[in-house]
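User: quick one, sequence for these tokens?
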């Protein structure tokens, strides 16, 4: 999994016109990894049951394996929810809050949710991001007069503290670190 995430980090860096190792270096030498299995029992009326509320992932990159046969992951696009159909032998990659901050807003963390289905679904997610001691801020090469910093620097542990305190509410941890625009 580290090799896959390393390749993804390199491709994201290239997409930002940065050196291949830039994101990997900014995420840190000892990244935080977490694996989560999700079980969604069948629901006789899926319209009345939400599997997982709308959210963004607090980490940098999420790699998701969906069970075949039923769609449950949805992403928002143009104010509409779109199903992400599971494909055979395919993984889903979501960019998280830390990529949005590091890219100074050029890449967005993905708003998504999980909905219930009439059939049993299982998914396996691997969350990859900075460890709690890593300092996070927009990458210097992505900040200039036309693109001022959108977020202040913070320690990942500070971000995670805000994230945990927002449990049960609409989580807005990255917004706490946004730089306020000064009126001209």
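Assistant:
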């Amino acid at each position: 999994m580290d090799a896959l995430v390393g390749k993804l980090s390199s491709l994201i860096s290239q997409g930002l016109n940065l050196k291949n190792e830039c994101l990997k270096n900014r995420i840190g030498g000892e990244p935080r990894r977490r694996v989560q299995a999700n079980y969604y029992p069948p629901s006789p009326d899926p319209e009345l049951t939400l599997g997982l509320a709308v959210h963004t992932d607090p980490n940098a990159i999420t790699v998701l394996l969906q069970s075949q046969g039923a769609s449950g992951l949805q992403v928002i696009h143009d104010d509409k929810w779109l199903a992400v159909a599971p494909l055979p032998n395919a993984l889903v990659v979501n960019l998280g809050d830390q990529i949005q901050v590091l890219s100074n807003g050029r890449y967005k963390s993905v708003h998504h949710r999980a909905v219930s289905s009439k059939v049993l679904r299982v998914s396996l997610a691997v969350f990859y991001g900075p460890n709690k001691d890593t300092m996070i801020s927009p990458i210097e090469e992505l900040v200039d007069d036309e693109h001022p910093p959108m977020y202040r620097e913070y320690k990942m542990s500070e971000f995670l503290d805000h994230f945990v305190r927002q449990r049960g509410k609409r989580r807005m941890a990255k917004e706490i670190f946004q730089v306020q625009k000064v009126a001209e």
